[in-house]
Amino acid sequence: MATDKCITSRPQRLGVLVGGSGLIGGALMHYFKTKTDESIDLLAPNSKKLSLREPDDILGYFRKYRPDFIINAAITAIDSDAQLAYEVNYLGAINLARVALALGIPYIHFSSAAVMPNGQNLDEDDLRPLAPGLSNYAKSKLLAELTLKHLHETQGLDYTAIRLGVVYGKHDHKIQGFHRLFFSIMNRAMPVMLTRRGVRHSYTHAKKLPPFVHYLLEHRDEFSGRTYNFVDPDPVELAEVILTIKRYLELAIPKEIYVPYPLAKFGRHTLELLVRGLSHIGVEARMPGELMFLENFYQTQTLSPARLLNSSFQGLAPEVTVYSKLPDMIEYYLTRWEQLNLISNYNREIFDPGHRREIFVNDPQRLLETIKNDNLAPFPGLEE
């Protein structure tokens, strides 16, 4: 995998990934490092080397490397102010598209279901009206999509937009989106259900995305100038996900008491006033960004994957769902957040596949014998 050092031996195809430190970017980096041959290499500059807010950074970087494709997975936090959302999510995305135009290369852009209205079985043409009342995040992502389409139609930009649902997966170092829900349940911060029965959403598994991106790059004639909803085929009921996590962890809360939306909205307003008051006396406090989308907890939004299913790409893996991945994700995030002291007073024995932590504490000799019986062959992939 290439770094940002000067490239002395250029691979057959060189790409630049912007936003490589996030959940999606990390999955892309891992895939192109381990699943493709050495003819494809991927640079993933951090914001110090390539800031989307600095046109001079963009010009200097791409003058130096001149890649064969660009992937944009960079986003700001969903509660970012207008200036940051405009400069990164919109202007930065368009500047990257202008680079792709100048170099005559493909541009893969990640978008969001936030640009779409609520409803069921929404296709790629279902967009929210571009209006001042949209959140900064939704407005910036919608502006980016509309401008990319304009550049394709007027200047021939070779781009593909990938529209995501609720993204889930491991190795996300930020607690936001679906993982905020995870964290709230694990930390016992959700006493009741902030949703209503029957509300469903579309989900996207982060590790399904890299093979699709690779396929897009190899089949530009079919996918150029198009937008695709990249979601699991079957939508998921939010309440059932919450209760499934609760059952896995054997917790007493959240109680299956459904808070009506007007009451939840009033609670959010009260919390906003409290946070504002604390800031006035010098206490640092911040609202969870996801509460901006409280309405979505009470409204169904499901995306149709029909366009993707009717394409030549056959790697959507319908057997992989948020439910099939829950045990693995729970184990990963529970361990990670405990080690970071983000979750306190938690009985780790509740969810410990194999009970190795318990054995480590109480019977290390048994653990040693268990490890000896495991496959301790030399680590694969390092042989000369």
Layout of secondary structure:
Elements: E1 13-18, H1 23-34, E2 40-43, H2 55-65, E3 69-72, H3 82-103, E4 107-112, E5 119-122, H4 136-155, E6 159-164, E7 166-168, H5 178-186, E8 200-201, E9 203-205, H6 209-218, H7 220-223, E10 226-230, E11 236-237, H8 238-249, H9 261-280, H10 294-297, E12 301-303, H11 306-309, H12 322-339, H13 356-362, H14 364-373
Major sheet details = 6 strands, parallel
Number of strands: 12
Chain-averaged pLDDT? 81
**Shape summary:** globular
Annotated CATH topology of the largest domain: Rossmann fold
Strand percentage lies at 5-15%
Strand order, main sheet: write it out. Answer: 2-1-3-4-6-10
CATH architecture level-2 label of the largest domain:
3-Layer(aba) Sandwich
Top-tier CATH class of the largest domain: Alpha Beta
Low-confidence stretches: none
Helix count, DSSP H or I runs of 4 or more residues = 14
What count of structural domains?
Answer: 2
Order of helices and strands: EHEHEHEEHEEHEEHHEEHHHEHHHH
Radius of gyration equals 22 Å
